[in-house]
Amino acid sequence: MTDAERERAQRVDAVLPTLRAAAEEADRLAAFPTTHVGLLRDAGLLGLVVPEKFGGLGGTLRDLAAATYAMGTACPSTALAFFFHNTSASRGLLPLEAIEAGLFADDEIPIVQSFAEKVLTRMADGVWLANFASESVKTAAANITIATTARKADGGWILQGEKSFGCATGVADYYLTSAKLAGYETAAGLATFFVPRDAPGVSVRAPWDGLGMRATANNGIRLDQVFIPDDEAMAVPGAFTKMLTMSRGSFVGNQLAIAAAYTGCAQHVYDETIAVTTAKTFADTGEPISSSPVHQVLIGEMTRHLQTAYLWLRYQLTIETAEPPFKPKQDVFTQWRLGKGAVTEACFQVALGAFKAGGTSAAAMSGVAGRALRDLAMGLVMTFPAERGMLEVARIVTEAKANELFTTAPTEAAR
């Protein structure tokens, strides 16, 4: 680690005791602790990956992965919500890179640059951004389908639709929302908007009681004729697809950090299992529980799965951050489609081993193993399951053609 990375890591370390102390109660209530917003803001972490020239800490994917991993050991729900806040930075960084690459026309640059810089400066100022893309509408063509519409109005845009997934619902200051422009049926028509949490027409969907990280405020939102001014929108046709071309690997270049959060959770439940089974002894022999053949097998399997997660994660981090790059973007993308599933499946197996090792007496919803089992189940399906990643890689290998990540829903599907 560089000196700057160590300084940023110290900021993360400083908040971990508070996150850890609140984790069990937050899970029980299925509610994101709103005090965490101020905690992370005061630590400067809401601007972790924002360049210093915009007021941020200047962190990179290495810093974000380290932060979500560390937070995952303390409170996976907070780690996940924090991750999604930081994904918002891609809506600032990638458009600016696309401008530098000459991808925008002269008349488009002021609009794109203004929006991109607004994303970054707000994050650096401690504004929490919830990144809303996913919807319940599905198509066979892509992982994420956008049906929410944006219709031009005097001085701005009218948004209509529903977002089914997005951490920090009712917590974030703004919902950074993707919508398709009227008249477009491809990803070229996707636009991004700042939607204030309390804007007229914005409402929260029914409480999310999911099998996963319960304290993420993951309810989603409804948008009913929500007006967004022009200066709060990046509605330049083609801007979304142009910015995606600038990412290093996965579609916005930071998806690895979500797998790091799951790995942190897996490491925590692994550590707890080792601590408990080595400290607790059999009443008749006095030997530690961990010495039994069954526990030896379980611990060996948990160790193998945990190390599998680390190997995939570390390799992906290397190929996404190495300078100069030593793999072409398509190879990095392909590796991630395999890696995401490999990491999340391995982490879930660690929790499953901990559940078995704890036995009936430890099979509690509030226990470390029980919470980890539920928390890590989300990784099996979030964005895409391992099976879809393997299928896409097989198609890439056999057809030399990658699936698009984003698409728009046919107009009739949005009605």
TrEMBL record:
Residues 146-226 form the Acyl-CoA oxidase/dehydrogenase middle domain. The keyword Nucleotide-binding applies. Its EC number is 1.14.14.21. It catalyses: dibenzothiophene + 2 FMNH2 + 2 O2 = dibenzothiophene 5,5-dioxide + 2 FMN + 2 H2O + 2 H(+); dibenzothiophene 5-oxide + FMNH2 + O2 = dibenzothiophene 5,5-dioxide + FMN + H2O + H(+); dibenzothiophene + FMNH2 + O2 = dibenzothiophene 5-oxide + FMN + H2O + H(+). The keyword Transcription regulation does not apply. Residues 256-377 form the Acyl-CoA dehydrogenase C-terminal domain. InterPro entries: Acyl-CoA_DH_C, Acyl-CoA_Oxase/DH_mid-dom, AcylCoA_DH/ox_N. Residues 19-90 form the Acyl-CoA dehydrogenase/oxidase N-terminal domain. Keywords: Flavoprotein, FMN, Monooxygenase, Nucleotide-binding, Oxidoreductase. It is found in: Cytoplasm. It is an enzyme of class 1 (oxidoreductase). Pathway: Sulfur metabolism; dibenzothiophene degradation. It comes from the Bacteria. Its main location: cytoplasm. Belongs to the DszC flavin monooxygenase family. This is Dibenzothiophene monooxygenase. It comes from Nocardia iowensis.
